[in-house]
Specification:
4 copies of one chain form a homotetramer. Helix content of chain A is 40%, strand content 21%. Chain A has 5 helices and 5 strands, in the order E-H-E-E-H-H-H-E-E-H. The first copy, chain A, has a single domain, classed as Beta-Lactamase, CATH 3.30.450. In chain A, helix 1 crosses helix 5. A 4-stranded antiparallel β-sheet of chain A has the order 3-2-5-4. Chain A has 152 residues and is α+β, with helices and mostly antiparallel strands. At the A-D interface, helix 2 and helix 4 of A face helix 2 of D.
């Protein structure tokens, strides 16, 4: 048997709260999704005013980041014209996105989930996802203490 | 022009909290989704231990309840063999569900959103959805005052 | 964080071998799929002569059994006409199957995966899936010793 | 009538074993799929640690290689901007992939199946697929004797 470490709901909602805080500071309402290590949705928030169109995109960014174990932005270059990954976006039922805004969440050396953000510009989405991932990393990442009192 | 009344994120998350409280009391972790009046997801929570399979089903129940403006359970009888609605479950890309657990949220005489619950038995899902809808109704429903102080 | 127990590839292939042995004894070639606790494919075998049409059905049976944490056959009654689950088969993109032949694999009190079998009659599919699940249970199930020497 | 030569399950699993051996030597767990001459899955293995996201991609690479009768990597150039095949990746429901890692398996002058590999970098996927195809070719390819004793 394999043992997998997976993000729980309380942690996912804390990540979403951190993302929302940044989005509010930026004045850009966002869709924010957190999936687990298997790509399944754990928590989602559409901030008031965020685009309905970007609901699925936020979820897909999180899914692709968990699935590739890479930030979606960092997959992009290998899919440009002339690169071996060209056209990858059509795979996995159109869920292989390279749009910035999806970042894996790592703890104990494993990808335990991912966050996806969408409704602003790709730069704004990326900024919010980075804030969320940094918050996660500071509390549950490799360098963080693992005392129970920190587990929410 | 039309003016649409639609559930906001803070209200949706309060509805999810009410649903979670009931689910916790029942000892059955649930997937809980709230969509707005247009059927678009506003907030989602997968309680720890809820089935991944039921994530999409919870969202679909909320979607169908907002879309039909009826509790999904109450659509069922008209889709039975011999009834004119027979086969309706295949419509809307398979999102016309009649499984209990989806209930519209009404305020000011309008359907402003819906809640969908899935991971337990259909009776358990229905009980949690009813608790969530009752909570919504007590605070924002037809009979409730609409003072700003009540808006979270 | 949550910790999840998940079937590994060697175990999945041993389950498939057990299923194949039974199918061979019955003289009915089968498609046999094993998914993990998250519904993702771990191993698959199409025995020579098994129907191509049933490849996806075998995978779907395993997916639905892992997802509902029930044997697909046992979900069926609640989806019959007049029952609350009527029409459920259209959900999850048509992957909510109640066809016999999908059985969850449990170890340590958790569903760690599922097996799905399809190409024969539903009774034949069920028989092979039961043989596979019984083999799994005898080696890795709740009652089995957990010595390393038994882990394949 | 047509007679079609098609890879059988035992051969497909031998090809997967050869691919796994190379992947293990490289230290990169892989998803490995073998399809038959009709593009239908014959055998699949997800090595422990391989990405769930790449399950479908491995199967798609094998499907596209069998379907085009070319290595997926070699289809890529004709789909670049300015080329007549531009945009082909959206065809066949998004299954026209040009990502390296899919290679047809030829015996007796015919494409009898294909192997697809995905979870590493495209270069790693390609290396494993080539190792698998070379193994197949050495045993069942054009230059190999076709005595029954060689058929596994």
């Amino acid at each position: 048997m394999l043992t997998k470490l997976s993000i729980d709901n309380a942690t996912a909602e804390a990540v979403i709260a951190a993302a929302s805080e940044r989005a509010t500071a930026m004045g850009v309402p966002q869709n924010i999704a957190v999936v687990d290590e298997a790509g399944h949705l754990v928590a989602f928030r559409r901030m008031d005013g965020a685009k309905f169109f970007s609901i699925e995109i936020a979820i897909t960014k999180a899914f692709a980041a968990a699935g590739t174990r890479k930030a979606t932005r960092d997959i992009g270059p290998a899919t440009q014209p002339g690169q071996p990954g060209f056209g990858a976006q059509a795979l996995v039922g159109g869920r292989f996105t390279t749009l910035p805004g999806g970042i894996p969440l790592e703890a104990g050396g494993a990808v335990v989930g991912a966050v996806g953000v969408s409704s602003g510009s790709t730069a704004q989405d990326q900024e919010v996802a980075e804030a969320a991932a940094a918050y996660f990393s500071s509390r549950w990442g490799a360098g963080a203490p693992v005392a129970d009192s920190q587990k929410d």
